[in-house]
Amino acid sequence: EIELREQDRWLPIANVARLMKNTLPATAKVSKDAKECMQECVSEFISFITSESSDKCLSEKRKTINGEDILFAMSSLGFENYSEVLKIYLAKYRE
């Protein structure tokens, strides 16, 4: 059995850095520490949402997480402000 390090489950730093660069003003500078901190935080956030979604699926005897599961998880974890926006995005995506 292969043992994964915690860092192996994180999003690639290059992806995180690119998102940060595209979101911040062009003149902004981002330190390596800031990128690494954001990488860890975003990865943990995704893990929490995924775990909550997975628990819902297991309780409903399903194997596949869907968009509604993600929205449910976000609401149940206190991120309902984001889930409302994502409901609109999900509906448009499915059109």
Automatic annotation (TrEMBL):
<keyword id="KW-0010">Activator</keyword>
<dbReference type="InterPro" id="IPR027113">
    <property type="entry name" value="Transc_fact_NFYB/HAP3"/>
</dbReference>
<dbReference type="InterPro" id="IPR009072">
    <property type="entry name" value="Histone-fold"/>
</dbReference>
<keyword id="KW-0238">DNA-binding</keyword>
<keyword id="KW-0539">Nucleus</keyword>
<dbReference type="Pfam" id="PF00808">
    <property type="entry name" value="CBFD_NFYB_HMF"/>
</dbReference>
<feature type="domain" description="Transcription factor CBF/NF-Y/archaeal histone">
    <location>
        <begin position="9"/>
        <end position="74"/>
    </location>
</feature>
<keyword id="KW-0804">Transcription</keyword>
<protein>
    <recommendedName>
        <fullName>Transcription factor CBF/NF-Y/archaeal histone domain-containing protein</fullName>
    </recommendedName>
</protein>
<keyword id="KW-0805">Transcription regulation</keyword>
<dbReference type="InterPro" id="IPR003958">
    <property type="entry name" value="CBFA_NFYB_domain"/>
</dbReference>
<dbReference type="GO" id="GO:0016602">
    <property type="term" value="C:CCAAT-binding factor complex"/>
</dbReference>
<dbReference type="GO" id="GO:0000978">
    <property type="term" value="F:RNA polymerase II cis-regulatory region sequence-specific DNA binding"/>
</dbReference>
<dbReference type="GO" id="GO:0043457">
    <property type="term" value="P:regulation of cellular respiration"/>
</dbReference>
<dbReference type="GO" id="GO:0001228">
    <property type="term" value="F:DNA-binding transcription activator activity, RNA polymerase II-specific"/>
</dbReference>
<dbReference type="GO" id="GO:0046982">
    <property type="term" value="F:protein heterodimerization activity"/>
</dbReference>
<comment type="similarity">
    <text>Belongs to the NFYB/HAP3 subunit family.</text>
</comment>
